[in-house]
Amino acid sequence: MMESIRHSYHLVDPSPWPISGSLGALATTVGGVMYMHPFQGGATLLSLGLIFLLYTMFVWWRDVLRESTLEGHHTKAVQLGPRYGSILFIVSEVMFLFAFFWASSHSSLAPTVDIGGIWPPKGIGVLDPREIPFLNTPILPSSGAAVTWAHHAILAGKEKRAVYALVATVSLALVFTGFQGMEYYQAPSTISDSIYGSTFFLATGFHGFHVIIGTLFLIICCIRQYLGHLTKEHHVGFEAAAWYWHFVDVVRLFPFVSIYWWGGL
Amino acid sequence: MSTMRSGLRSACALLRRPVDGTAGKPLALNKRRFASSAHDDEYETAKWEKITYLGIATCTILSIYHLSSGHEHPPEPPAYPYLHIRNKEFPWGPDGLFEVKKHDH
């Protein structure tokens, strides 16, 4: 029956994962709200929802990998879909983070009298931007250089070098997250300390969360490269991870300059 | 920027394609459509490997310098009403995350 296919599009099979993902998301949001307000069983529902969601992500992406890598359904025409999807997703992420930088600039450019009319607010202990923030800033672009190295190694057909390059990328990412954790642990203020704490931890925290997502994405690419899933001609998953990673490392420069440096001195 | 440019380029390529009956053919234009460079990949691999090592060396030196030099702790601020805001208890208890546990409760 393969002979009868006379087009280059992938007509997907029926799948249970959209509905299971939706149910997982519903349980997660309802459970999350119940957990944050004094309802019984909130933590249980939230955990169940998250487990359901993570399970759906695993099996759905497992199916996609089987369809693309083993069954060869991802023709050039099909590959355009995830490419445009990834670009639109990253654009939406830029807008998401833009809102947090907007909030930070809005609060810091004309500080209200309630916080002493100054920025950082009176009495707030801020991190020295010349310490961990300055150290962490070159780690992400270095990791970005390593992912470019991996990309060219894949294109040149150097399979082992590509694995090493991805190990370097992921290691730098983990070092960044480690330092960020240390910084949060040592930080003299918390998210409940005025508008400074709110904007600081929301912006840097969501950036850190995106670093963790990108790291997981790159770990999957590293495993797939090791298993020989990615070829010179076909490595859309890797390209999406690399675009996402460049987005994350470029975005880091904004909180460093505007929140840590300008907003912290 | 280059991502955007190549994205636009491929969008234009899509528009230029004749609509009648060519959908079934593999797209000849597809090769490296979203690529950021068209250089020799052997050369580029070696170049970016060197740049990565340079980056790792810089970060290692910075880390050693930072971790070996101590840091100061700012003095405890007066209890301004906008600091340490507690409207209700957290789900896990009275203390915030990443907070030094020093209060009596």
Helix-strand layout with pairing:
The complex is a heterodimer of chains A (265) and B (105).
Chain A: H1 17-36, H2 42-70, H3 76-109, H4 132-155, H5 159-186, H6 194-226, H7 236-262
Chain B: H1 2-16, H2 41-68
Overview features:
heterodimer, A: 265 residues, mainly alpha, Helix Hairpins, Four Helix Bundle (Hemerythrin (Met), subunit A), 0% strand, globular, B: 105 residues, mitochondrion (chain B), membrane (chain B)
Q: Could you give the distance between the termini of chain A?
A: 69 Å
Multimeric state: heterodimer
Extract low-pLDDT stretches of chain B. Answer: 18-30
Give the integer mean of the pLDDT values of chain A: 94
Judged by helices, strands and strand pairing, the structural class of chain B is mainly alpha
The number of domains of chain A is 2
Strand content of chain B: under 5%
Helix content of chain B: 40-55%
CATH architecture of the largest domain in chain A: Up-down Bundle
Number of helices of chain A: 7
Radius of gyration of chain B: 28 Å
Query: What's the average pLDDT of chain B?
Result: 72
